[in-house]
Amino acid sequence: QVQVVESGGGLVQAGGSLRLSCAASGSILIINDMGWYRQAPGKQRELVATITRGGRTNFADSVKGRFTISRDNAKNTVYLQMNSLKPEDTAVYYCAAQNYRGDYWGQGTQVTVSS
Predict the structure, then answer these.
(1) At a CB cut-off of 8 Å and minimum separation 6, what does 91 contact?
(2) Which residues pair with 59 in a beta bridge?
(3) What is the C-alpha separation between 81 and 22, in angstroms, rounded?
(4) Residue of 34, 6, 3 whose CA lies nearest to 20
(5) How many CB atoms within 10 Å of residue 86?
(6) Nearest-CA neighbor of 109 among 42, 38, 47?
(7) Is the pLDDT of residue 28 over 80?
(8) Which of 60, 42, 40, 41 is nearest to 50 (CA)?
(9) Dihedral sign (CA 14, 62, 92, 77)
(10) What is the pLDDT at residue 27?
């Protein structure tokens, strides 16, 4: 079993920054892809950014140039640095970790951007 825990959400003004962290623990074996997804009220969950174990990244068009993703393989931790935040970035942000057994999700952390 793999546990995934996010931290770092909160309330920020438009134009501000936040850094989310996510740690995977438990019977991890090898964590392959890690990533961040978000779900705004009344909307479907969507991809924000992913990163492979080797460091290859993928971003949603809406966050390119504003968000960066990084990971520490030794700590099974992934980070999401969010800059130039907009009100439309308001959502619950979920972390996901993948190993050969499947995908594991955190409980989510709220990010609220005020205008």
Answers:
(1) 38, 39, 40, 43, 110, 111
(2) 49
(3) 12
(4) 6
(5) 14
(6) 38
(7) no
(8) 60
(9) negative
(10) 81
